[in-house]
Amino acid sequence: MASPSRTVLHSDLNHFYAAVECMRNPALRAHPVAVCGRQEDRHGIVLAKNCAAKACGVRTGETVWQAKTKCPGLIITDAHFSEYTKYSRLVQEIYADYSDLIEPFGIDECWIDVTASSRLGNGEQLAHEIRRRVKRELGLTVSVGVSFNKVFAKLGSDMRKPDAVTVIAREQFREKVWPLAVEELLGVGPATAKTLHRYGVRTIGDLAQCPTSLLQYKFGVGGLRLWEYANGEDDTPVVPQCSAPPIKSVGNGVTFNADLTSSEEVWPMLLMLADEVARRLRAAQKKAYGIALSVRTGDLRDRSWQTVLEQPTQHAADLAGGAFSLFCQHYTWSQPVRAMTVRAIHLDDEQAAEQLSLFCDAGKRERDASVDATLDNIRRRFGRRAITHAATLHLPKLPSIAEETELLLPNGLQTMRGLCR
Ligand SMILES: [Mg+2]
């Protein structure tokens, strides 16, 4: 049960990438702007847009060409990820004046537990102070949700934007939250929403009043958790990054500059993605017993598959091989490939005992491990890009920007999207 006295803020930077670009070049401010992977290429993908572009119907994930068709005056800018990381850090420094309990959620969102900061003001006052300071000191705007748990704080930050504060107090959460569409709730993705709709669950209130037996039957433990969220019973703590719980899976994904149209193009991309996953598995001293692959198609649909590996591994080629066989087994090429994520799942400590298969080549495994150790060493000393697989040397469809990486922690809430490179 949630502590009755908790005060949690969720602060979300509005149109973050586009806002930073407009600050770098104020002449952009008056125009619709989209930040894209690679602007000289008409197949570049929209990564972010400002309000004016949004008003024209420009969507994240579509091609520059599609966006320009909707909005002929659209100004396209390159992405500058090191700037976004810098501002993300500066904003967090402001949050740190109000609490030590700050949990980032992606590059532009954070939960801040201000329960212990009541001498500085109540939740709503602190939210406004943060909102004003971010605007004055950094020239960016945030929308802040204030509530008694993380899920409603996040919901609040979505309810009014930009540059706004929304309070969802315990006494009035039913009036404020229950009429909202169920997909607004954290944890209700498109697939879950679709199933819920089939059972007539359209609002968060419908979900709150849905029999738990049905939710458990359809979604397992996750269904019960959603029911608790809808009823204001989320008691997950705000966990600062440094004391985050052990990782449950390691994923790495990328949206391509141009859609992939053949399996020959898919393989080196998988190898590149798996390489980073493997590096991070080794850094975390984990091995994976399974692999999951997600593919976003050219028409923006997501597919995913997973499989158990014959032997646990922390070696890139094994992970890429598993992902590629999933791909070949399941992908029909009715659409080109827009984006892919490779995720190592079913993790265990690398020291944990394992049963070696009769057909496993122990000598090869040892050689792989020693090559990996050498790779890691070179990269530690000379940087991530110092050495790479020959197959991934020339990939014109790979964006020259940061990959999206993600650590999925045991609590479904704590998916952190960060940037590497
Ligand atoms: Mg945002």
User: What is the chain-wise order of helices and strands?
Assistant: EHEEHHEHEEHEHEHHHHHEHEEHEHEE
Strand order of the largest sheet: 11-10-12-9-13-14
Q: What is the class of the largest domain in the CATH system?
A: Alpha Beta
First-to-last CA distance: 40 Å
The overall number of domains is 3
Query: In the CATH scheme, what's the topology name of the largest domain?
Result: Dna Ligase, domain 1
CATH architecture of the largest domain: 2-Layer Sandwich
Number of strands: 14
Please describe the biggest sheet, giving its number of strands, its sense, and whether it closes into a barrel.
6 strands, antiparallel
Indicate the low-confidence ranges by residue numbers. Answer: 400-421
Structural class, by secondary structure, is alpha+beta
Relevant CATH superfamily of the largest domain: DNA polymerase, Y-family, little finger domain
Q: Over all CA atoms, what is the radius of gyration?
A: 23 Å
Which hetero ligands occur in this complex? magnesium ion
Shape: globular
DSSP helix count? 14
The percent of residues in helical segments reads 25-40%
Strand content: 15-25%
Average of the residue pLDDT scores: 85
